Amino acid sequence: MALCSLSDVKVMLNISASDTSLDDKLNLLIKQVSAQIESYLGYKLARKDYTEELHAVNCRQLLSLNHFPIQSVTSVTHNGEEITDYLVIDEYSKWGRLYRKFGWGGQLITQGFEHDVVSGAYDYLVSYTAGYYLPGDTEYVEGADDSLPYDISVACANMVVLKYNYDAQGATGLKAHSEGNISDTYGDGASDIGLSESCKLALRKYCFYGVA
């Protein structure tokens, strides 16, 4: 899984496309940074097909799926009956939510003498496609709605370059140097550094904080 392309990273490092001597190392860094970005965002980014059972209570208008952004919906059934009166709206689908005007109602699970509602039955079955085409996919088109947002790809490439430069400086990269009384500041090893603050700032609008 790679959130940026090897060719872009090599351009940023001024490495010729014909020079493949560092490809293995750069690909490893790309995988490492891609995993760190997914961990920071809180969800998977690669486009896949899913089928999952869900429940809904209180006839809320939004049904929350487990993967996003939703690219397309193949089918929705409730207790085996097909449902078609839902909408895939960008505002909600980017966080995996299906809108239905009259709400999603389902069988409630209750307990006790007062029949308090404790959950809903998993009586909805949804088949859908979620996630993005990644730079390594043949279907990837830069800027397309179904492809990885360019700023995520750039953030990944920038972090790969940063890690590579740290490693090129030695086991611990020199981050700062001053002449007066000689004061050097060293960074962590390239494999140990996390995402930079500038990278996190670029990614922040894509972070998933959960559904209340």
Your description of this structure?
- It is a single chain.
- This protein has 212 residues and is an alpha+beta fold.
- The protein has 2 domains: 6-44 and 149-206, no CATH class; 48-130, no CATH class.
- It is 26% helix and 26% strand.
- The protein is built from 5 helices and 10 strands.
- It has helices spanning 6-12, 23-41, 90-93, 150-168, 197-203, and strands at residues 48-54, 60-64, 70-78, 81-82, 97-104, 108-111, 116-120, 124-130, 174-178, 183-186.
- A hairpin with a 4-residue loop joins strand 9 and strand 10 (183-186).
- Helix 2 packs across helix 4 (150-168) and helix 4 (150-168) packs antiparallel against helix 5 (197-203).
- The longest helix is centred in the N-terminal third of the chain and has 19 residues, at 23-41.
- The relative contact order is 0.19.
- The mean pLDDT is 87.
Quick structural gist:
The protein is α+β, with helices and mostly antiparallel strands. It has helices spanning 6-12, 23-41, 90-93, 150-168, 197-203, and strands spanning 48-54, 60-64, 70-78, 81-82, 97-104, 108-111, 116-120, 124-130, 174-178, 183-186. The chain is 26% helix and 26% strand.
The proportion of strand residues reads 25-35%
- Count of DSSP-assigned helices: 5
What does the largest sheet look like? 4 strands, antiparallel
Number of beta-strand segments? 10
Number of domains: 2
Order of strands, widest sheet: 1-8-3-4
- Are there runs of 5+ residues with pLDDT below 50, and where? none
Radius of gyration: 23 Å
Terminal Cα separation, in Å?
Answer: 30 Å
Order of helices and strands: HHEEEEHEEEEHEEH
Helices and strands: which structural class?
alpha+beta
**Given the C-alpha coordinates, what overall shape results?**
elongated
Helical percent range?
A: 25-40%
Mean pLDDT: 87
